[in-house]
Design brief:
single chain; about 100 residues; alpha+beta; elongated
């Protein structure tokens, strides 16, 4: 089994409150989870209202499939979010469950 993770850093220009940030982040996370069936969460920058760091994870039998899924997630965020993607990092690992 392979595991793929991605961290995406967003700049929320024009955002002036944590309430406004929460609205944008919840919208992105909800739409990505529903569309791509990946685990998603805000993983950093929680106290900064102009930056959001989001984490995504997916597992499957082939790292190439996972790479495609995470690429599609990134493309979706770039095309549909009220935020600018300023950085993204992906990592893939082979995982052998016990048993």
């Amino acid at each position: 089994m392979h595991v793929g993770v991605m961290e995406v850093t967003l700049r929320l220009e024009g955002n002036s409150s944590l309430k406004g940030k929460r609205k944008v982040v919840k919208s992105i996370l909800g739409r990505v989870k529903a569309r791509f069936n990946v685990a998603a969460s805000e993983v950093g920058g929680q106290d900064v209202y102009e930056v959001a760091v989001l984490g995504f994870a997916v597992c499957g039998p082939d790292h190439r499939i996972l790479n495609t899924v995470l690429d599609n997630v990134l493309d979706f965020i770039e095309d549909n979010a009220d935020a600018e993607v300023v950085d993204s990092e992906m990592e893939f690992d082979l995982f052998f469950p016990a048993g």
